[in-house]
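Operator note (shift B, R.M.): manual run for M67 family metallopeptidase requested after the automated queue skipped it. Running by hand, logging everything below so the morning shift can see what happened. Input copied straight from the record, untouched. If output looks odd, do not overwrite the archive copy; leave it for review.
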Amino acid sequence: MDAVLVIRADLVEQMVEHARRDFPREACGQLLGPEESDRPERYVPMTNADDADAQGSDYRFDSREQFTVYKEASERDEETVVVFHSHTRVPRRALTDTGLPEAYPSVKDIEYMGLQPGVHFAIVALTGPDAEPDLRSFLLDDAGEVVEDEVQVVENYMFSHTGAGDVPDRS
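Run finished. Output pasted below as returned.
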């Protein structure tokens, strides 16, 4: 499975700004786009409703807010293309011993991924509010295994493509 997430730079900037603003709590949100397009067009910041601890080392969408976003997206013929959240303090892989935040799905993240097949899960890891962000994106393959997307940040979608299959045939 060769997964590619093509995303506009302005949307990446909005996610990173949100992650910096909410640090040390994990920020979360969704990127919505036209149905069946796989192209995020707008970022919807969400409230982190997880109150597991004061550090906010996890995230959960508020169910009422999630329903409002879903309803509005449906009215606009949009769908969730990317679920976003940040990692701010703990490593997410058992083999990681650096103690630094890492842009890799936690066990809970993988459970969420299983509820939304085909949706990219983007993670921004920050070690501090002014630190350099690490953006990575993941999908689950057909066997339920985590697969890292290739992330292509573009200025606009007009000239971007993910392969020969989406270039217009001029014959």
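Quick read of the result: Residues 9-22 form the longest helix (14 residues). The CA atoms of residues 19 and 27 lie 5 Å apart.
Leaving this for review. - R.M.
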